[in-house]
Design brief:
6 helices, 4-stranded antiparallel sheet
Length: 139
């Protein structure tokens, strides 16, 4: 082989190794930036909506007074969920009417997830990211 061909092949291999190294560095830096983009507690509080307390009966005849903190993904979504307050109350009353006192003692995670999913079906200006139970009294 001529000296020119050997030089060309060596140059291509060096360029390929450099490109792979650059790609690895760029992907690692992008991954670190995504981790730092996690929402701060200030953002969560700013885009949260606190529902009014709702008192309703359960399937087994008991009563519950419950309140939620709904976290949205932005200002527009927070404004929309505050306007959809009547729909939120409707969803909660329908869901709570199917629950029993034992369901509340076992945990509220399922109810929070159902409320989140049903609200996201209604939302047009953003979405609900979390639903937290902040007050609950069984009677």
């Amino acid at each position: 082989m001529s000296k020119l061909v050997k030089t060309m092949i060596t140059s291509l291999v060096v360029l390929l190794i450099g490109a792979v190294a650059a790609l690895v560095v760029v992907l690692n830096i992008a991954g670190e930036n995504k981790e730092s983009e996690a929402r701060s507690i200030d953002d969560i509080v700013e885009y949260s909506y606190e529902t009014p307390e709702i008192t309703t009966d359960l399937a087994d005849g008991a009563f519950v007074r419950i309140q939620f903190q709904i976290v949205t993904d932005g200002k527009e979504a927070k404004e929309e969920i505050s306007k959809r307050d009547f729909q939120l109350k409707n969803i909660l009353i329908k869901e709570l009417a199917t629950k029993s006192e034992e369901d509340f003692k076992a945990g509220l995670g399922e109810l929070e997830q159902v409320v989140k999913n049903k609200l996201n079906e209604l939302m047009t200006e953003g979405q609900i990211t979390e639903v937290y139970t902040i007050n609950k009294i069984l009677q």
